[in-house]
Design brief:
Structural class: alpha/beta
Family: Belongs to the LysR transcriptional regulatory family.
Keywords: DNA-binding, Transcription, Transcription regulation
CATH topology of the largest domain: D-Maltodextrin-Binding Protein, domain 2
Radius of gyration: 25 Å
Protein name: LysR family transcriptional regulator
Organism: Herbaspirillum robiniae
Pfam families: HTH_1, LysR_substrate
Order of helices and strands: HHHEEHEHEHEEEHEHEEEH
Helix content: 25-40%
Largest sheet: 7 strands, mixed
Number of domains: 2
Distance between the termini: 60 Å
Shape: elongated
C-alpha cells in the first residue's frame, strides 16, 4: 500500500537526484530510503529511477509519476490551509496578489481594514503583472487578486470593485499641457508608451480601440510592464500614454495628467478560482467592495 511518506521519499530523491542528499534532507539513513524507493517501484510495477549511470535520473515513468504527485501535494496543501481557516473566514491564511496601480488607490485601505477586522488571518501580499496574476490564481498559487478583469473568466469568480476612467499623461512641456481636458484625437501624431498586450490585454485593447474610434491607431514606440514605469518614461519625453486615473497620484514634476473627453474605463475586480474553497476569500472580497464604497472618489 502506498503511503504519503513513500511519495515524500520519492519526490525528495527526484528533486535531489541523489540518495545520500535526499536521506539527509529526510533525516533518515540511506539504506532504508533505498529500500522504500525499491518497494514503491515494486508496488507501482515500474522503475522510477535509472541507476545505470553515475548520476541517477528519472525514467519516463518517474517523470510522469512526479508530475502527478505534484497535484496530490497541491491538494494536500490546499486542504491544510483550509482546515486552518474557520468556516466564516475569520482565521487562516490568505495569499493576495495585486497589480501595482491599485497601490495608488484601493489596496492600502483594503489591507488596513481587512487586517483590523480579521487579525487572525495570515495575509501575504505580492505584486504581479495582470496576466501572470490571473494564471497564478487559476493555479491556486495565489488565493485572490485585485486586478483588471481578465478576458477569460471561465475558471474564475469575480466581483467588480470599480470602473476607472483612463486619462492622458503628457510630458510637462507638451503642446497640450495647458489644456484642462483633451480629446485623444489630439494625440494622433504623438508617439505612445504602452503596456504590452501580452501583459494586460484588456487595457491594451481599450486604449487601441479608443484611439481607433477617434480616427487613428496609436504609434506605440515603447512598451513597459508597469504603469508607473510608463508614467516615468513619459516624463522623460519619450511619448504620451493613456493610464488609469489612479496613476496621477504619482505627482511627478515631469508630467501632467489630463482628463480625456469621452474617456474609456477599465474595470478593477476581485478575482479568485472557483474551485478554491478558502473561506477567507469571501471575507476579503466583501471587505474590498465595502472599503471602496467608503473611500471612492466623488463621481465614481
Amino acid at each position: 500500500m502506498i503511503e504519503l511518506r513513500h511519495l515524500t521519499y520519492f519526490r525528495t530523491v527526484a528533486e535531489t537526484l541523489h540518495f545520500g542528499r535526499a536521506a539527509a534532507l529526510l533525516h533518515i539513513s540511506q539504506p532504508p530510503l533505498t529500500r522504500q524507493i525499491a518497494a514503491l517501484e515494486k508496488e507501482l510495477g515500474a522503475q522510477l529511477f535509472d541507476r545505470s549511470k553515475r548520476a541517477i535520473q528519472l525514467t519516463p515513468a518517474g517523470k510522469y509519476f512526479y508530475r502527478d504527485t505534484t497535484e496530490i501535494f497541491k491538494a494536500l496543501e490546499r486542504a491544510k490551509r483550509n482546515v486552518s481557516s474557520s468556516s466564516t473566514g475569520k482565521s487562516g491564511a490568505l495569499k493576495v496578489g495585486f497589480m501595482m496601480s491599485t497601490a495608488y488607490n484601493i489596496l492600502p485601505s483594503v489591507t488596513r481594514h481587512y487586517s483590523a477586522a480579521y487579525p487572525e488571518v495570515d495575509m501575504r501580499l505580492t505584486e504581479h503583472v495582470p496576466n501572470l496574476l490571473a494564471t497564478d490564481i487559476e493555479d491556486e498559487k495565489v488565493d485572490v487578486g485585485i486586478m483588471y478583469r481578465p478576458e477569460d473568466c471561465s475558471r474564475l469568480d469575480s466581483h467588480t470593485i470599480y470602473a476607472e476612467p483612463l486619462l492622458a499623461v503628457l510630458p510637462r512641456d507638451h503642446r497640450l499641457a495647458a489644456k484642462p481636458a483633451i480629446s485623444v484625437a489630439e494625440l494622433a501624431d504623438d508617439s505612445f508608451v504602452s503596456i504590452p498586450r501580452s501583459i494586460a490585454p484588456v487595457v491594451f485593447d481599450i486604449i487601441v480601440n479608443h484611439c481607433q474610434s477617434n480616427g487613428f491607431r496609436p504609434r506605440i514606440v515603447l512598451e513597459a510592464n508597469l504603469q508607473q514605469t510608463i508614467v516615468n518614461l513619459v516624463g522623460e519625453g519619450l511619448g504620451v500614454a493613456l493610464v488609469p486615473t489612479s496613476m496621477q497620484a504619482m505627482h511627478l514634476e515631469t508630467t501632467v495628467f489630463k482628463p480625456l473627453l469621452n474617456a474609456p474605463v477599465v474595470e478593477v475586480a476581485v478575482i479568485w478560482n472557483k474551485e478554491n474553497s478558502n473561506p477567507c476569500i469571501r471575507t476579503f472580497a466583501d471587505t474590498a467592495v465595502e472599503v471602496w464604497r467608503k473611500v471612492r472618489p466623488v463621481g465614481n
